[in-house]
Amino acid sequence: MFRWLTPSRAATPQVEQQREDNAALNVVKRLARAISTVGKDAAEVRGALEDTQRIVQAQGQAMQALARQLDQIGQAQAAIAAATAQSAAAVQRARGALGGVGGEVGGMAATLAQVSDAAAEITRISLQTRLVAFNAAVEAKHAGEAGRGFAVVAEAVKALAGQVEASSKAIVGAIASLQQRIDRFSAELAEDAARPSQIHAAFREVEQDVQRIAASAAESGQQMGLLNERAQELEREVSQASQGLKVAFDGSDRFLRMAEELVEQIAGSGVEVDDMPFIRAAQQAAADIGALLEDALRGGRIGEADLFDAHYRPIDGTQPPQHTTRFCALTDQLFPAVQEQVLGFSDKVVFCIAADRNGYIATHNRKYCQPQRPGDLAWNTAHSRYRRIFDDRTGLASARNERPFLLQTYRRDMGGGRFVLLKEAAAPITVNGRHWGGLRLAFSF
């Protein structure tokens, strides 16, 4: 006996449309996740470029210090050359006129003292130059492959500075020996114990010493020429690195913002992207903060001018700098009720804070409102984040955003060279129709 099978009923147009819509929605959601991952990578690249920019800036400062020191060395070497020439001329005059030898010898002694002072100054500056070059080389090594060329040149500068220092020390040693010879010569002249032949022999020895000093000074000058060439190479390296970094940084910034805007547009279209719960939480918290501030105005707890106070008064002895405003006492009373509650919304939430339109955080989450520890910048940066102005790219964008929401991806500085990668949903805070600032809700990936 055959059993007839009933064919399945064809899907209705409405069901088929629903399937297509669901498939398209899933594609959009996957696209949003992929874009979010791209944004994360772009934020990490941007952060790495920021680190490299700081290194290049330090190298630029080292170059400025190096240029000043090389100028000082050049002046000291010019003084050595002039003083040595004067000493040589004094020897020649004394040999030609033995009657005035006492005065010439005294003049030589004074001139050689100037040479000694100049050589000692070169030694001191050369040591500083070596230290600057050493620090620049260390910073370049931190930059990895991008700083390799700079590191090689910086090492060469350090080596040349060491040679200049050695030449200067040789000059100082030769002058010390020569001064002793001149002192003995002067004593003999004063006693009239030296015969003319002895005087001529003494002058020959003095002249030879002066020539050795002149040769050392000439060698030092040649080394300075090489040192200047290397310094110019360093300057070119820094300039090229700065230009390349600016191009790369601007490109990464545009790429990051494009990724953020794409996710915003997808979320704004009504698609339930992964970030949507955090966006809604930020919007609700912003509305709650705005309502609390409006109630405070109506109840006379604060005036509008005080609520919108933008005169940030520095708190002495704070690092990073902290400031106060006329609305701090009020926000300390009102904001924790909202901000602390949102912290429990998800274990991914890192902080929830209200910033005024200039990025000023009067009242942070309680765990980040620790009193500063004097001299402990790293700890203060991580744990004492209230009463501070965050006017960086992310902080200002969130504070001044007036669209329904804003999504951003960035690295948060935790102090001591430690960073964490975060996403942030921001929503505007309005008080009686006037934009006061933004609610910043940061969460981890």
Mind telling me which CATH architecture of the largest domain this is?
Answer: Up-down Bundle
Please report the first level of CATH classification, the CATH class of the largest domain: Mainly Alpha
| Helix content class | 55-70%
Helix and strand composition category: alpha+beta
Strand order of the largest sheet: 3-8-7-6
- Overall pLDDT confidence: 77
Classify the fold: give the CATH topology of the largest domain.
Answer: Four Helix Bundle (Hemerythrin (Met), subunit A)
Task: Give me the strand/helix succession.
Answer: HHHHHHEEHEEHEHEEE
Distance, first to last CA: 63 Å
Written description of the protein model:
Helices cover 68% and strands 11% of the residues. The chain has helices spanning 13-96, 101-142, 148-191, 196-268, 276-298, 304-307, 328-343, 377-383, 393-400, and strands spanning 313-314, 323-324, 349-356, 360-361, 388-389, 406-413, 419-431, 434-443. The longest helix is centred in the N-terminal third of the chain and has 84 residues, at 13-96. The protein has 9 helices and 8 strands. A hairpin with a 5-residue loop joins strand 6 (406-413) and strand 7 (419-431). Helix 2 (101-142) runs antiparallel to helix 3 and helix 3 (148-191) packs antiparallel against helix 4. The relative contact order is 0.10. It is elongated. The strands form 3 sheets. It has a 4-stranded antiparallel β-sheet, with helices on both faces. Strands 1-2 form a two-stranded antiparallel ribbon. A two-stranded antiparallel ribbon has the order 4-5. The chain has 2 domains: 44-259, Four Helix Bundle (Hemerythrin (Met), subunit A), CATH 1.20.120; 276-443, PAS domain (Beta-Lactamase). The protein has 445 residues and is an alpha+beta fold.
